[in-house]
Amino acid sequence: MTDEKNDFAAKASDVAQQLKAKAEELAAAAAPAAEQAKGKATELAAAAAPKVNAASTSASHQVAPLAGRLKKLTGGRFDKHIDTVSTKLETTLDRSDKPDGGSAQPGPGGTPS
Predict the structure, then answer these.
(1) 112: which strand partners?
(2) Of 97, 75, 96, 94, which Cα lies nearest the Cα of 86?
(3) What is the pLDDT of residues 32-62, one digit of tens each?
């Protein structure tokens, strides 16, 4: 019985070594594709950043007129709530215009921050 266990353990060890070698081979083959994908993602993020910032700025400029229309529509009943929400929204949109505030500009790792 001990010989069977040893034989099984030896076979399992051989299979594990084969799997490890295959995994290393696959990782080496995938590395160039991963690096290429990372470069393309960085390129796309850099290209998208100005468009995202322009959209954010445009949206930020629309908050005050929308808040005014909402106030008029509600007859002033919710002015305080509308002001609170519009202020928070404008602050968030203004913050996203800056590279360190969550825009689509690549961060230190090449990914959007």
Answers:
(1) 106
(2) 94
(3) 999 999 999 999 999 999 998 888 888 888 9
43-78 burial string, b = 16+ CB within 10 Å, else e? eebeebbeebbeebeeebeebeeebeeebeeeeeee
- Burial group, residue 19, by CB count within 10 angstroms (0-12, 13-18, 19+): exposed
Q: Tokens at residue 11, please? A: 């076979």
Q: How far lies 35's CA from each of 32, 40, 41, 42, 110, in Å?
A: 5, 9, 10, 11, 11
Q: Return the structure tokens found at 70.
A: 């909402």
| pTM > 0.70: yes or no | no
How many whole angstroms separate alpha carbon 73 and alpha carbon 78? 10
Tell me the three state secondary structure of residue 109: coil
